[in-house]
Amino acid sequence: MKLFTLLTLVSLASCVPVTPSGSNTSTPLEYTNKDYTDRVGNVQLQSTSRTAGYGNPITPLGSSFLLKFDLLDEDFAYLSAKIYHCNFDWTPSVLSDLEILENYNEYPINDYEFSQNTIQPYVSYQLRLPPVRRSGNYIVAIFDSSKGLLFSRRFMVYEQKVGVNAGIQRSTGISERNSHHQLEFDINYGSLKVVDPSRDIMPIILQNHNWNTVISGLTPTSARIDKQFLEYKHFNQENNIPAINEFRFFDIRTLSYRGRSIETIGMSNRGIEAIVQPQKSRNGSAYSEPFEEDLNGDFVLANRDPNEMDIQSEYVWTNFIIKNEKVYGQVFVTGKFNNWTLSDRNTLTYDEVQQSYRGSIRLKQGFYNYTFWVESPDLPHYHFEGSHFQTTNEYEVLVYFREMGTVFDQLVGYALF
Description:
Blueprint: E1 5-6, E2 15-17, E3 28-30, E4 34-35, E5 40-47, E6 58-60, E7 65-71, E8 79-86, H1 97-100, E9 107-109, E10 111-114, E11 123-128, E12 136-144, E13 148-158, E14 163-170, E15 180-188, H2 197-200, E16 201-207, E17 210-215, E18 222-224, E19 229-232, E20 240-242, E21 248-251, E22 262-268, E23 271-276, E24 279-280, E25 299-301, E26 315-323, E27 330-334, E28 347-351, E29 356-364, E30 366-375, E31 395-401, E32 410-416
Parallel strand pairs: 1-22, 6-13, 23-26, 24-26
Antiparallel strand pairs: 2-3, 4-13, 5-7, 7-11, 8-9, 8-12, 10-11, 12-13, 14-15, 15-19, 15-20, 16-17, 16-31, 18-19, 21-30, 22-23, 25-30, 26-29, 27-28, 27-30, 28-29, 31-32
């Protein structure tokens, strides 16, 4: 039996229509990470390969993914999954289902389990996605047979047809030197039939697997065609990215007492509520080593309450506060827990009386990294966080290739560093 302290909480507060067989709606599918209903709880897409990208949704060709997710329902639903192939820029490709899959492209989800003794009932589902036939970018979309599209998630499948050597250094730009990282890399494309390296090969750089800050459109600064070698060492900061700051964190792995960075935890009329300790802007502050191990924006689901299993983990209304004067733009709380999505579900609203931004998100028990993101024409997204060259981040280089005479993009190289 879980015990809670009763408390009074501070007041917080590119589309293509796709419809699988059996669905009675035509909600447009967006080729990105998106929840289309509040019924969707935690979603995890994990590679079954040990050589994949440290929990990121990427895997070698021939491997597959395990999709695990919760729906905040009292009863199970008849669900199915469908897979879509995309170009390197996440526009839909022209490949047919038979060109990317061995079987009919609709997969029923029959593996499910009900939550036990939870205040918020939910049903946990899982599905092992089939291996795909080609490398590249993909979307998996989940549909309810009676209510239509529930959510979509991106994943990538790569072939190591090229060699990628990459490294990070402090920016060589004068004004960026203390706040940015510089990414340099080279590609050995071996036996690929490359006609025009600037057109045929399309490298992309991701920081902490965040597609909002992707670096793309880089062309080689040096090409040695005789050695099938391309070098990307730019001098005008095209390969620079804000190093940002180490992530903020909070711990809701237990509901029996306050975890780290949690101010209060207890019950309200909408369920279990936790208030993360009120935060302040770190803009202008000196770099500080992280107090807790930094997960580069990631999270870990876990339940530390005695005799509790995963299906007994609770969903917690997690409340965020950052005290600051109002800024011109929108403020979000985000991280890998919501795939860096910027939406109404993670927007913070400004309280003129309390002079702070506030909002809440329903999250499953676990340990979370997070950041405050500003979407503004005048301010950088890290306005509340600061940016320091000392920050450690996770970077990925993805190398896409379109062979002459074909109409789709392959993912032919991958490096994580």
